[in-house]
Amino acid sequence: MVTAPPIIDFEPFYSTDPNNKDLLIQQIRHACERHGFFQLINHQIPSDLLQAILHQSREVFGLPLEAKEKYSIDIEPRKLGYERLRAQNFEKRGLGDLKEGFYFCRDLPPDHPSIGRFLHGVNKYPTELHDLAAFRRVVGEYQAAMGELARNIMRVIAQSLDLEEHWFDDFCADSANILRLLRYPPQEVDETGVERGIGAHTDFGGITILLQDDTGGLQVWDRESSQWASVVPFPGALVVNLGNLLMRWTNDRYLSNLHRVINTSGRERYSVPFFCTGNLDYTVECIPGCRAETEEAKYPPITVQEWMEKRYADTYGQEGEGELSRDVGRAVDG
């Protein structure tokens, strides 16, 4: 039987009722162990802000291609700005993933010491937009709101691992967060069966918080049934999933799960993933309690920057298919 990721009420985090908080911790623990995914409701992100970021996403992707290409991620600073259709190919087959994106880091002052580091730079805001000031304001507000929510989610995850609530705070401080606006055109009939909005993959960092519109198409691999489970959009909900770094951190106790998008709705799909990457200088090593005293940690310590640079190199083809692509192929092909 296919089991979809659960819908979890986050309201207890903001309450003073210890019983409700304990229940929330138990639900998060189970979701992290079983799915690596859950949908979050009552997260206190205003619905107006959620709608505003989707509106701005439609605005920016409505620009002519020649205008969007002026802000390409291949232009310095790299990995920020516009990514054209089929630029990625997670499953290393077919024509590439049928999506286009705009990538933004946190806005930092020009003299900030992190400017120029990996995943830090000066954002590329298209001046061709009808209301550039509104676009920048919404992107900034959304970034800030997601950063705060990510810290709160990590505080619950800490408690689910029997750690002190603020155990992950240093990891989240000055995090190299990335916000992506994504557009998925509707797929044509695909007789080959390899067309993907985005191919099966796992995320790289700590956690991802995803806003999806009501189109559907997101699927998560259900390991127990060996089938894909649809993450049906729930009004007002945000999708949360764990990244490879957190799975590594917990000695594989928590799951960074495969997911993909297949947009057969016949209309465009928009989504907004926010990646809580972590502080680049933070060293990740096996969390206390995630291995027995006589057991070796599965992974050696590594800094966030070292880990992320390797994953980016793998994804963008700089190291061939790499370990992530091979793992994806084994999981999808059975």
TrEMBL record:
It comes from the Eukaryota. Belongs to the iron/ascorbate-dependent oxidoreductase family. One of its GO terms (molecular function) is metal ion binding. InterPro entries: DIOX_N, IPNS-like_FE2OG_OXY, IPNS-like_sf, Iron_ascorbate_oxido_reductase, Oxoglu/Fe-dep_dioxygenase_dom. Pfam families: 2OG-FeII_Oxy (PF03171), DIOX_N (PF14226). PROSITE patterns: FE2OG_OXY (PS51471). The keyword Oxidoreductase applies. The keyword Metal-binding applies. Keywords: Iron, Metal-binding, Oxidoreductase. GO terms for biological process: small molecule biosynthetic process. This is Oxidoreductase. Residues 175-278 form the Fe2OG dioxygenase domain. The lineage of its organism: Eukaryota, Fungi, Dikarya, Ascomycota, Pezizomycotina.
